[in-house]
């Protein structure tokens, strides 16, 4: 509807943030590549500007005659960590299958325990789960509590927290888990991500990985397996050459987001600067009506 106002010449200027359309999701002979003639027409003639989620999308839109601009990654401010080389973050996700995902990841850790021995491991559980629910999940995995926020799995000490993966991404060297948005933020940070693929998973299923994650995360994504055994083998291979996987992810981040963060703030500032240049409406020239209540005009 806002685009119709802009297209019909109502005098209203429309500014959009295009989060659904991205050049990274384009595949030949697939719907993702077709922005759509009608949509492109609206974007071209019905908007004053379209802000994009990444730099390649801005170039793509500009090639279609759309006034597009990339002003930075839209997401939380993630400060870089100081010890990225030895921290691994495990994400069971926050959807209804988080507990099953957690058990999958703990089995993976046990199978790859020798390769993980020199790393600090940390789980981020969903913020909406109670302490009792998390405790039951850890007990099902045969973990043993050693502190309020850590447990033993075999001989490996693992710390955990709830809902704070944004704060922890900057200090991670590798992400392993079931997630969507969190892995996109990790890719922006140049952190490689291993994501298992389960047929009946709510999110990390074959369709989701093939149609979204593989295209959106590109070189930052490392496909895991559909069993803990396969995922453990992938994890061991990655840890054996971690620096190379990190360099690939960092190069992808540089190309895609050009090191620009603070997108939401930059877009707001850009809109504010545009509004400041809009000339004010002309004031009416009719004489003011007397107001007998306070003696003013």
Automatic annotation (TrEMBL):
<protein>
    <recommendedName>
        <fullName>Lipid-A-disaccharide synthase</fullName>
    </recommendedName>
</protein>
